[in-house]
Each structure stands twice: as structure tokens, then as C-alpha cells.
Amino acid sequence: MYSPGFSFMINACILLSLMSLISSLEPQLGSTRVVFQTNYGDIEFGFFPTVAPKTVDHIFKLVRLGGYNTNHFFRVDKGFVAQVADVMGGRSAPMNEEQRKEAEKTVVGEFSEVKHVRGMMIQTVVHPHSRYYLEMLLISTARWDRYSALTSFQMIQSNVLHYVLYADMSSFQYAIFGRVTKGDDTLKKLEQLPTRKEEKLEADLERLMRQETECPTERITILSSYYYDTETENCEQDRSILKRRLAASAVEVEKQRMKCFP
Description:
Blueprint: H1 4-25, E1 32-38, E2 41-47, H2 53-64, E3 72-77, E4 81-84, H3 87-90, H4 97-103, H5 113-117, H6 119-126, E5 133-138, E6 149-156, H7 160-170, E7 174-182, H8 184-191, E8 195-203, E9 208-216, E10 220-221, E11 224-229, H9 230-260
Helix pairs in contact: 1-6
């Protein structure tokens, strides 16, 4: 019979191996970061450009155009999802021609192996902290058209079983295109806000179904947004450090020169 200490070591090794496997399955984040600013704090996320390049290009172009400014989170299901509205109808400010032109574009559903492997989702089960995932919800009149991805997306936080159940029941298809990198505390604040149930009729080519969604009683506005590049930030830091070192070296050289050649 194994001792409690030995069993603990075995379990720890299994857990570490599982976490290592999960990490290897997680796609590589690009260097771009986008920040949504709300009354409840900031939410920062990065993109998976190798997983869903068309989706990333579409969303990031709208970010650069200021398309998500004055938009809002129209749905917050506690412990499951926070969903950003489509910019065509979700903004309080009018759109200019360039913003509207980009917002009206549709993107083919880039369904990847990431969705099926769910490496990152598995990590939510074994890790004590929640992980949030950005997924492009395919939106159109029919809602299940694989060529109808627009500008609404979800930040998912749930365990694997809940997610699988939801996906199987609704028959929705999703394309993972990024992950929240900062702002877990903000998302948790949004989860605590009061909501009301709204029943929406979802149309399928073969059937109709009703879906209840949790909508916040107050508008959660994206006041503004901005973006930056982590590689550029790192280069600036490295350059600053190098400048300080060069300055310190110059001072030391001058000291030695004065000492040797008074």
C-alpha cells in the first residue's frame, strides 16, 4: 500500500505532465495586444494569427479604425460567457463610411484543431485560476452560416463539460482567434452585475429554437480601445537599458582617463 506522501508525488507528477501537454497544445499568441476600456476596468487580449488569420485581420482592422469604441457587452452569463455586440448595431456613436465598410464584411468560419483539442479549456479544469478565451461567434440572419462571421465575439470562461454541452445543444460553430491576457478581475466584476433573461429566436435552416440569454440590466460600454505591440515595447526597454549602460560606461571610461592622464 502506498504512503500518502508517495501518492501525492505521483499525483503531482501526473498534474505537471498534463499541464506540460496542455501548454504544448496552446497556439502561439502574436505580439499585438488590444485593450478595451470600460467603467469596470480594462480587458486586454491577444490574437492567434496562425490559427484564424482572416478573423484576426478583420477584428484588428476594426480596432484600428475605432470600430469598437462606444460598443458594449450585451450578454453576460455568469461563469460562462461575456459577449461583445456586433458593431453595426451595438455602438452608441454613428459609424463613418470606412468603419461601416469594414464592419459589413463577412469572414469564413476558420474552425481549427484548437477548438476540438481544447487544450486551453482543459487547463481551466486543472488550474486554480480562470482562463478566458476569445471566440468569433458566427452571426447572420440564420446564425449558423459558416460564411457569416461579422464583428461580435465572446469571452468564454467555463469548464470543458459545460462548453461541450452548450456546443452540442445549440449546434453553434466557433472559431477561436485569441485569448484574454489581462483583465480577469474586470470580467469577474461584469459577472457580478445584475442581469435579465431575454428569449431570442434563433433560426436554423432545418429548425427553430429559442435561446435564453443573460443580458445586463445596465449598459456595459466599451468607452475606448487602443492597441500596442509587445515586441516594440520590449525593444524600447532593451534600448533604454543599453543607453543607461553606455552612459555608465562612458562615465567610467572618463574616470579612468582622468586617473591615468591627469
